[in-house]
Design brief:
Helix content: 40-55%
Distance between the termini: 137 Å
Largest sheet: 8 strands, mixed
Number of strands: 22
Number of helices: 26
């Protein structure tokens, strides 16, 4: 109020401003209550209310003289926004302009509702923008708000929240309202609620002084000194009363206040005020008692003896502390804005006249409002005073921080300014304990490199950091992307790098074992081991395709041809004496070559369809840990193509095994049927073990090495089985029994026949005569009994054992090391042949025995003894089904004609060779 009176004195004493016009004031106390202010404001409008007094008469019957209320042209005030809003609603009805010096509620900027309201301070929307800029400058993005219930607090917080939503980048953790009449413990509950989001250390506070003080007290009781970082509005400003005795809790608080200056003339004016010279201020006596803490004497009022009596000699600033109130500048500017508006209006409506002319009596409120909105002058602080279309002053704020260290005295220190944009000196700021580092008030900490932000729904400032896992890298702040197949992420997952390329090395354990096995023999099957381990290239890949199945095809084609020949011979022998077709060596070679050519043809077709080449497979060795990822250099041969390449050899192997099983009844002394069978059984076991290992490791990270090792080992074992069971016995004979390894020759039996005749003659001399026993060739209609069959078998045995050709073949090893066993087996075969075939002709028996001698003893009977003697005697014995004495049969052999016999009892003229 003193500031207003001072401004009126200055205006009335200024000859240039409103000359010959004196401004006065009618001052009412609002008591900071909006309802009481509403009642008081009715006084301003009484003069505008026309009352009907025609029916009022004095006691003498005359009309009373009613003094009209003083007419006001404008209202200065109020301070509180809630009071200004209530008063503005009344004044606008009577078109009385209102100029506030401290009301900053944003809703007062609504020119439709408060069209007669103007203010010399910026609205809280500017203040909220300034506070938001401060929050962003400090690097905060997660704060809480605290507001006193009422227009000022609630509208200020609402403005801050709205601006923060529009601007983005700042989120509100808690928005707490302080009740008008808080209950006991209410502020402790508020502090507890704020701690629910403890990361939001920044607290935006729009509250009155008392609420601010009680919040700080609750924070101290909760032992949270230094935790909360307050950003206070102009209601806090640079006041010391809210933080008295709570400096440690308030340390670091940032506050703002509309830009102001100290008015030196007012200090001189106010400090000179006394009880004697300031009687116009009816509230000055109360101020005097409160300021000097004394008591004035009043008539009829007894003085309290405990109170100091005011002498009236006290002086402001001398006997009491004095600091100019922050609103003095704005009160003076508000009064001057009305004065300049009236001055301009007077010049326009009353040009050249002194005093108020008829055009300004009364003053039209809307016209005065237009003049007020149009003023532009330098205010008491030297800054321009002007208004926008909504009646708001431009935003100009000083930014303070309450500091306790590094200064000669603790207090508020200017750290920046805001005039449509922020200028903040971060180097001048300090926090609890004098720390220069700005504390954090954020919802989520920044994600590390290689992590993406997963936003929390509904809270754009909060997120969870998720690592880009697997083969992903951080594409941007919010997304991860999978690296290309030939690349893997760098360790911090911010980019991709090429995947290293590997191949099976010679020094790898997966290569040493197959190579060791393959060195046992250098054949096509063994050679594939070296090709599979060698560095992949076009040539190496081509040879892998060609030789992978070729060696096995050659081996099993030969075995299949041989087992098939044995099977066909014995099957044909059961039906006919005519030998089966294609059993000659030439035929066997042709069949083997045909079987091998199928494998070769398939490989060359493969060459034509898909030429051999190398690839780098990045998918095979791509484990969850990208650091272990590798690209594998290999030939373009899939698992399926490898199996297809081996499938033909496997078919040959299985077919050969089937024939080996069918030939299992062949006597063990016959050729190589059973060794081939054992070879094929063992080979099948090897490949049956290969299949689950090969396909079972398809998902293993060591797939390349395990499958290559398994494949090469299986092939080497197959070759070793064939080598050990079929060829090693022959190698054994070659090395340890070279006498049996002579060149094969066709045997002429002429000398054998002569030796047989000499042997028969010697036997005849012992018997003193020749005894010729001729078989009874009569046909018998009776079926042969078991006894007669046994006698026939003995007869065949006697004939064959006495046959010189067979005896010499056995003695000279023409049938191999098992020659005698083959001779005994020959008896059973011949007997079975007669039993299975009825009505045999002599020529058929001759061909059958000749074939057996050729196959088992490598002997060609060409001396004539076979058709003329042996086959005839055996055939006759079968025909008669009569017992034939062994001696008789042997004697009968002496009658067989032997032509062109040569004297060679030692058989040197024979061309013989042990079959290998």
């Amino acid at each position: 109020m003193e500031a207003m009176l001072y401004a009126l004195d200055q205006i009335n004493s200024d000859p240039e401003l409103l000359p010959n016009i004196t401004l006065g004031a009618r001052i009412l106390d609002t008591c900071s209550r909006d309802t009481y202010a509403l009642e008081q404001s009715l006084t301003f409008v009484q003069a505008l209310i026309q009352k009907d007094t025609s029916d009022i008469r004095c006691s003498n019957g005359e009309q009373p003289i009613i003094r009209k209320p003083e007419r006001v042209v404008g209202v200065i005030g109020a301070s509180a926004s809630s009071v200004s809003i209530m008063v503005a609603n009344i004044l606008r009805l009577f078109e009385i302009p209102q100029v506030s010096y401290a009301s900053t509620a944003p809703e007062l900027s609504d020119n439709n509702r408060y069209d007669f309201f103007t203010r010399v301070v910026p609205p809280d929307s500017y203040q909220a923008q300034a506070m938001l800029d401060i929050v962003k400058a400090l690097g905060w993005n997660y704060v809480s708000t605290l507001a006193s219930e009422g227009n000022y607090g609630e509208s200020g917080v609402e403005a801050f929240m709205q601006i923060s939503r529009e601007a983005g980048g700042v989120c509100i953790a808690q928005s707490v309202k302080i009740p008008r009449e808080p209950s006991d413990g209410e502020f402790d509950k508020i502090i507890k609620r704020l701690m629910e989001t403890s990361n939001a250390r920044g607290v935006i506070i729009f509250a009155n002084e008392d609420d601010i003080k009680r919040v700080l007290e609750a924070g101290k009781r909760a032992n949270l000194t230094g935790h909360f970082l307050f950003v206070g509005s102009d209601s806090w400003g640079a006041k010391s009363s809210p933080i008295a005795d709570l400096e440690d809790v308030a340390e670091g608080a940032v506050t703002i206040l509309p830009k102001r200056a100290c008015i030196d003339g007012f200090d001189q004016y106010f400090t000179s005020r006394s009880l004697e010279n300031n009687r116009r201020n009816i509230w000055f006596n109360e101020f005097w008692e409160d300021d000097f803490r004394c008591k004035l004497t009043r008539p009829g009022i007894k003085l309290d003896p405990d109170k100091k009596k005011c002498t009236g000699e006290e002086r402001i600033g001398r006997d009491s502390s004095y600091e100019q109130e922050g609103k003095v500048q704005f009160v003076i500017d508000a009064v001057y804005s009305v004065a300049y508006a009236l001055h301009s209006m007077h010049q326009d409506l009353c040009p050249g006249s002194y005093g108020v002319c008829s055009n300004m009596d009364p003053v039209e409120g809307r016209s005065l409002l237009n003049y007020i909105r149009a003023v532009n002058f330098n205010g008491s602080a030297g800054t321009s005073v002007l208004f926008n279309e909504n009646g708001d002053a431009p935003g100009r704020y000083d930014i303070f921080q309450f500091q306790m260290t590094n200064h000669s005295h603790p207090g508020y220190h200017v750290i920046g300014q805001w005039t449509n944009n922020l200028r903040l000196n971060l180097e001048e700021m300090q926090w609890s304990g004098g720390d220069k580092l700005v504390p954090e008030s954020i919802c989520s900490f920044p994600c590390k490199p290689g992590e993406r932000k997963k936003m929390v729904k509904g809270v754009p400032c909060c997120w969870h950091c998720e690592l880009c896992d697997g083969y992903q890298y951080q594409l941007d702040e919010f997304n991860c992307e999978t690296c290309p197949s030939d690349m893997r992420p760098v360790p911090n997952r911010t980019a991709c790098r090429p995947t290293p390329i590997i191949k099976l090395e010679w020094n790898s354990p997966w290569a040493l074992v197959p190579v060791s096995l393959s060195t046992l023999g250098i054949f096509l099957i063994y050679l594939i081991t070296f090709l599979m381990i060698a560095e992949p290239g076009t040539v190496a890949c081509a040879f892998r395709r060609l030789l992978l199945g070729l060696g096995m095809a050659i081996t099993y084609s030969a075995m299949l041809t041989k087992t098939n020949r044995i099977y066909r011979i014995f099957e044909q022998g059961k039906k006919s004496v005519t030998p089966p077709k294609f059993i000659s060596p030439t035929s066997q070679l042709a069949i083997t070559f045909l079987l091998i050519s199928i494998q070769v043809l398939g490989v060359f077709v493969w060459f034509a369809v898909v030429p051999p080449h190398t690839i780098i497979d990045y998918e095979e060795l791509r484990p969850p840990n990208p650091e272990l990822a590798r690209g594998i250099l290999k030939c373009d041969m899939s698992d399926l193509s490898i199996i297809c390449c081996l499938s033909y050899s496997i078919v040959l192997m299985v077919t050969c095994t089937v024939y080996a099983v069918k030939s299992r009844g062949v006597p063990e002394t016959f050729n190589e049927a059973k060794p081939i069978g054992f070879t094929m059984y063992t080979t099948c076991i090897v490949w049956l073990a290969f299949v689950p290992i090969f396909f079972g490791t398809a998902q293993s990270t060591e797939k390349l090495f395990i499958q290559t090792a398994t494949l090469t080992v299986s092939m080497s074992l197959s070759a070793s089985v064939s080598l050990g069971m079929l060829y090693m016995p022959k190698v054994y004979v070659i090395i340890f029994h070279p006498e049996q390894n002579v060149q094969k020759r066709k045997r002429s039996l002429k000398a054998v026949a002569q030796a047989a005749r000499l042997s028969q003659k010697s036997q005849s001399e012992k018997q003193n005569g020749e005894t010729k026993i001729e078989p009874d060739r009569s046909q018998s209609s009776m079926a042969a009994s078991a006894a007669s069959r046994e006698l026939f078998t003995e007869g065949v045995r006697a004939v064959l054992s006495s046959w010189p050709v067979l005896q010499i073949a056995v003695d000279n090893g023409f049938g191999g090391v098992y020659g005698q066993q083959k001779a005994d087996w020959l008896v059973d075969v011949v007997q079975q042949y007669f039993h299975d075939n009825a009505d045999l002709q002599q020529c058929e028996v001759e061909d059958f025995i000749s074939e057996l001698m050729d196959q088992e003893f490598d002997t060609v009977v060409d001396d004539g003894s076979l058709p003329q003697c042996v086959s005839a005697d055996i055939h006759a014995s079968d025909a008669d089904v009569q017992p034939v004495a062994a001696g008789g049969v042997a004697a009968a052999l002496t009658d067989c004609p032997i032509t062109d016999a040569e004297e060679d009892p030692e058989g040197k003229g024979h061309s013989c060779t042990l079959p290998v």
